[in-house]
Amino acid sequence: xxxxxxxxxxxxxxxxxxxxxxxxxxxxxxxxxxxxxxxxxxxxxxxxxxxxxxxxxxxxxxxxxxxxxxxxxxxxxxxxxxxxxxxxxxxxxxxxxxxxx
Length: 101
Fold this sequence. Notes:
Layout: H1 8-35, H2 41-67, H3 72-82, H4 88-95
Helix pairs in contact: 1-2, 1-4, 2-3, 3-4
């Protein structure tokens, strides 16, 4: 884990896991708490955390894309799309990010 923090791609991978986890928590925990049991505070807290991680993921994706000379049409858009699909960041980490040095 410490080794991942030393590189931009490693930090992007960590952000992907955090962002993906926050999206899952938002969709499958906070939203049901809000609309089924009337507890909106979960959505407010997790939604804010997820929004921050979402923005960090997008900014870091663009930064790594420039650093790694990714073609937008072949790689960058896939990584960006992953952050809006539940489990997408986990898939992209396994298929693309893990293999980049």
